[in-house]
# Entry
Amino acid sequence: MKRNRGFEVVQAWADKEISLPVRKTAQSAGYDIESAIDIDLEPGKITIIPTGLKAYMPADEYLAIHIRSGMAIKHGIMLINNTGIIDADYYNNADNEGHIMCALYNTTNDIFHITKGDRIAQGIFTGYRTTDNDIAEGTRTGGIGSTGR
# Structure
């Protein structure tokens, strides 16, 4: 059975009314990703925000996670790693089922409150190329930083 590129709710969040990302216009590149929880972003701190989502894509693609421009410009919130990279083999990994998290950093001196359902990021499915002599092997077993161990 051929899988379709797209988003799913992770099993642990199946009963939490998680919205699947959508594009707001026909010309939008990004799918808006919402926070799965209410949370305060403390000034000068990094906060990991669960989305309740996982994403399936073909082996030659990744999902790029970007901060929404309104979050950055209007509220001083940024992704700590500037662009999150969700690799195709992150989907359904044994460690966390491929749960997408957003690491947000509050650059301001004020607490910023996020409400469940607030659009915090956008995901863009992106193709990539490898070198002709690429020899990468193996399968991902974890989440953030799992290939750097």
Q: What stands out?
A: The chain has a mean pLDDT of 92. The chain has one helix and eleven strands. The longest strand covers residues 119-127. Helices lie at 69-75.
